[in-house]
Design goal:
The protein is 31% helix and 21% strand. The chain contains 6 helices and 9 strands; from the N terminus they run ααβββααβββαβββα. The strands form 2 sheets. A 6-stranded antiparallel sheet has the order 6-5-4-9-8-7, sandwiched between helices. Helix 3 packs across helix 4 and helix 4 packs antiparallel against helix 6.
Length: 264
């Protein structure tokens, strides 16, 4: 018997969560200089392809999955004969392939380290012990999904969660949406001078419709418009939640209230 769903009930599947195997563009960009240096040193052109087997096969001489058998492979690594006369092969293909394989493992470790950092920051933000449950999304993934949904609901392009330290002297980014994951590697922001955060920590939402004419509020990201709301429990101030927009705009009272609910 088929179960009927009432017409007034709408079921929505969350599609904002990031796939664990996803490779961010900055992870590939970090290896671009390595690939150029590899070509200069060996004469072989190195390709790191997150999509799978390199698409261009005319000059492909060697290809293999990166770090196979160790979790989800971030992609394929390949060697091509260089089309530039200045980079004739200087080493045998076998030696170049061994070096390329080691480079691929380094790339995989870079991605794994960044992902581990992304997860740890979110665990610290959640402030609760993490219990592994097979098939359940990591708290980092769920937290980022919440930020993504809230940003979309009010027409923003990015969001960032900052928590204060025990000494209440700095604000550390713990989770973000719409910003490079590299932001998690940056040092904490000092509380001194962070006027918008300080005002929010007093319990007030701060709406910056045009950040260019309000530089004294110290917006942490270079966006034309932003909203900063407090994150707190019933008895403790925890940090601030920022939402950023790529163009100057105002925010209605209803939108600000929604963001305050999300922060809660």
């Amino acid at each position: 018997m088929t179960k009927q769903i009432p017409s007034y009930l709408k079921l929505v599947t969350d599609t904002n969560a990031e796939s664990p195997a996803a490779v961010a563009s900055e992870d590939l960009a970090a290896m671009a200089e390595v690939a150029r240096t590899f070509t200069q040193a060996t004469g072989w052109r190195l390709s790191l392809d997150a999509a799978g087997v390199p698409s261009e096969n005319s000059s492909l001489m060697w290809s293999a999955p990166v770090n196979p058998g160790v979790g989800a492979s971030p992609g394929h690594i390949g060697l091509f004969s260089s089309s530039e006369g200045a980079h004739e092969p200087r080493v045998h293909l076998e030696d170049a392939a061994a070096l390329a394989d080691a480079t691929g493992k380094l790339w995989a470790e870079l991605i794994a380290t960044r992902r581990a950092l992304w997860q740890r920051e979110a665990e610290l933000a959640a402030g609760v012990p993490i219990v592994s449950r097979e098939g359940s999304a990591h708290v980092a993934q769920r937290l980022e999904s919440v930020l993504a949904s809230a940003a979309k609901a009010v027409g923003c392009d990015a969001a960032a969660l900052y928590l204060i330290d025990e000494a209440t002297t700095v604000l550390k980014l713990r989770s973000c949406h719409g910003l490079p994951k590299q932001r998690l590697l940056q040092p904490a922001r000092p509380m001194r001078g962070a006027m918008a955060d300080l005002e929010a920590l007093l319990g007030h939402a701060v709406v910056l419709s045009d950040t260019s004419i309000l530089p004294q509020w110290q917006t942490p990201e270079p966006f034309p418009a932003a909203v900063c709301v407090p994150v707190s429990s019933a008895s403790t101030v925890l940090g601030t939640l920022w939402f950023f927009c790529g163009h100057t705009r105002g925010f209605s009272d209803d939108q600000v209230n929604l963001l305050e609910i999300v922060a809660g």
